[in-house]
Amino acid sequence: MRAVIILGNIENINNDVLENSYIIGVDKGAYLAYKRNIRLDIAIGDFDSIKEVEYNELFNYTKIIKLNSIKDSTDTNEAIKLCKDYNEIIILGGIKGKRIEHFYANYLELVNNPKLSMMDDNSYIITTSNDVIPNNNYKYISIFSIAPESIITLNGFKYNLNNYKLNNTDPLCISNEIINNPIIKIHSGRVLIIYSKSDNE
């Protein structure tokens, strides 16, 4: 079962991602989903980023959980708590924006929950301890260790590695490119993988 959490405006939402999913809109992301006629199962947030008239439109569109603006967690964290019974959780949006601290908080959610992934129009981010056959829809692949040390092997890339010890402060594996039949082998540890499209797309 899959849950999708919409945080921001995604111009090119893949309808396959939304199909047969439990869909949660978070704060302004909920309103943006409503404006694009995306079905919402629920909206959650303190809604401090939308106008009162917009909130009223949203109130008439879907079920709402209104949070106190003074709290010890983020709206996104509260949305994730609603997904505890789902084995896959995709966050749409929340990667870019003017408030970089929000992305870092979302990054911490990824690190703390292996069921989570994030995507927007240009990037797709996952964490894993398992071998990966990369997604060919992206030009660049960057790999960072989120364990103190991960041992990885890369085959089928522009820059291959064999049993490389990647520690959590090592940026060596940024912006690699697929060549042919790629595979990322995770011998130990856990990594964050960022797929990115070309700057010109």
Written description of the protein model:
With 201 residues, this protein is of the alpha/beta class. The chain has 2 domains: 2-120, Rossmann fold; 128-196, Sandwich (Jelly Rolls), CATH 2.60.120.320. The protein has helices spanning 15-18, 28-35, 52-59, 75-81, 100-112, and strands spanning 2-6, 21-26, 42-45, 64-66, 88-92, 116-119, 123-128, 140-145, 149-157, 161-167, 176-188, 191-196. A 12-stranded mixed sheet has the order 4-3-2-1-5-6-7-12-8-11-9-10.
Write the layout of secondary structure elements.
Blueprint: E1 2-6, H1 15-18, E2 21-26, H2 28-35, E3 42-45, H3 52-59, E4 64-66, H4 75-81, E5 88-92, H5 100-112, E6 116-119, E7 123-128, E8 140-145, E9 149-157, E10 161-167, E11 176-188, E12 191-196
Q: Give, in spatial order, the strands making up the sheet with the most strands.
A: 4-3-2-1-5-6-7-12-8-11-9-10
What helical percentage do the residues reach? 10-25%
Q: The CATH topology of the largest domain, please?
A: Rossmann fold
Mean pLDDT: 93
Question: Unreliable segments (pLDDT under 50, ≥5 consecutive)?
Answer: none
